[in-house]
Amino acid sequence: MLAAGLLFFTGCDRQEEASFPEGSGTDPDRLPGLVILSVVDPETSSPLPSATISLGGRDLQWAGRPIHLDLGGGDAPQQVSFSVEAPGFEAEDYRFTVPPGVTIERTVEVGPRIQVAVAEPPGETDRSSESETAVQAPGPSTPPPPPARSEPEVEHMVRIEVEPAGAVVILTDPTDDGRTFQTEAPGVIGVPPGLYSWSVTMDGYLSDRSTSLLDLETRSEAVIRTALTSIEAGEALRLGDEAMEEGDFFRAAEYYRSFPVPMDIESPVGRQYMISRSRLAEALVEQGESGEAAGVFREMINLNPREYSAFLGLARIQQTDGQCTEARRNLLQVERLINNVAPERRPIIRAWTLYYQGLCSFSEFERASDPTERQRAIPRTVQDFETFLAHVRGMSSIPAELEAAREDVQDRLNQVMETI
Questions:
Q1: Which of 133, 158, 208, 414 has the highest CB neighbour count under 10 A?
Q2: Which CATH number characterizes residue 175's domain?
Q3: Residue 148 lies in a domain
Q4: Given 207, 230, 253, which residue is the final one in a domain?
Q5: What is the signed CA dihedral for 395, 399, 402, 403, rounded to 10 degrees?
Q6: Which domain range does residue 31 map to?
């Protein structure tokens, strides 16, 4: 980033404006307007681990790396407004003007004192216009302004040429603990040098993924160019179910993901959407992606807090991960929502609730290292398992999966009884 001079704006609970004069020597037809946003801790001047940047009706998730916004070419200045929210800090609002062909970098320090650094256009070497204004923040004292930033590390640029507009593009660095970079089409995103896989997703469309790694080690620029294929809601559910039956969980997940978000979650299409999300989570669990699956179940709960299947699915994942306190809390929610279940399915849902409760007790029994602690865990484990077995014996029809669960419980119960 070339920065002949820096303008610093500090303030609290207010909006700041910054603009540059036209005629900076840049070519609007060749260099698009570009905004680079970063969020840092006011105490350490280090990047915050997370923050939300709201811009133009979109919420962009800051994850420690600069967010690049390509404003496109043209010969007219563009107005940009955004707000920043981060855990533990007050939200701040900003607006400024981006002249054609100019790159502006804004580094936002959230907190009682806000500092925004704006890089001037290339070619501007006159520093006589440098200025600094400060607004006293509420409190007993105002800390000194932080030192000027050094120029950020040069990043390699990826131009996103994807249809339709608004599709979510995610680049993943498989060599760096799966670090990801996300943007929306169309646009430009800057990433460190490396090799990247990419994916493109959007509701109502089949997703697309890279078949080979994008080389940004030997090249400084690259293009992702693709057009997603739209798919009908019912077709997405049908194809996903077929793929699940064939054991192709990856393809099933792609179909379920493509189900468009309905306007009314309570409508028949809304019900189909919730079914597709539940089956998406199941496909993710089969792939070993339990964290992403838990996120899908939480999304379902946010959309409809009466969706018992989401609480049950989330409890299953939490029990497997050893989060028994959270799992029991969600199983209790299933019990409270049991009247929302179709009468013919209530015994089955009740059985699965008892099964996972028993597994939680059994895992606590297994983890007990102290003999006294293990003896205390035995009565609850035995009671939970016997309650499950009694419920299943009273069912008129037992699905195959539940029969397998019954055999599993009997085996575990025998293990516990052998220790008595």
A1: 158
A2: 2.60.40.10
A3: no
A4: 230
A5: 90
A6: 6-133
Number of separate domains in the chain: 4
If asked whether residues 125 and 22 sit together in one domain, one would say: yes
* Minimum mean pLDDT range among 107-111, 186-190, 309-313: 107-111
In the chain, % of residues over pLDDT 70 = 67
In this structure, are 272 and 200 located in the same domain?
Answer: no
Secondary structure percentages of the chain, helix, strand, coil, to 5: 35, 25, 40
CATH number at residue 30: 2.60.40.1120
CB 276 within 8 A of CB 240: yes
Residue 313 in any domain: the answer is: no
Classify residue 66 as left (phi > 0), alpha (psi -120 to 50) or beta.
Answer: beta
In a domain, 309, yes or no: no
412: domain CATH number is 1.20.1440
pLDDT band at 382 (very low <50, low <70, confident <90, very high): very high
Q: What is the rounded CA–CA span in Å between residue 334 and residue 349?
A: 8
| Domain final residue, candidates 275, 304, 333 | 304
Residues in Cβ contact with 358 at an 8 Å cutoff, skipping those fewer than 6 apart: 381, 384, 385, 387, 388, 409, 412
Task: Report yes or no: 402 and 352 within 8 Å, Cβ to Cβ.
Answer: yes
User: What are the residues facing 138 on neighbouring strands?
Assistant: none
| Domain contains 238 | yes
Sheet holding 58-62, edge to edge: 58-62, 51-55, 78-85, 92-98
Helix (H) or strand (E) holding 222: strand 221-227
Residues 6+ positions from 13 with CB-CB distance below 8 Å: 90, 92
Residue-level pLDDT at 140? 46
Question: What's the Cα-to-Cα distance from 206 to each of 164, 182, 250, 258, 268, rounded to whole Å?
Answer: 12, 18, 13, 5, 22
pLDDT tens digits, 210-269: 777 888 888 888 899 887 777 676 788 889 999 999 999 999 999 998 888 887 888 888
User: How many other CB atoms are there within 10 angstroms of residue 76's CB atom?
Assistant: 9
pLDDT at 77: 63
Q: Which of 46, 67, 50, 49 is nearest to 58 (CA)?
A: 67
Report the pLDDT averaged over residues 106-124: 43
291 and 378, same domain (yes or no): no
Whether 197 and 259 map to the same domain: the answer is no
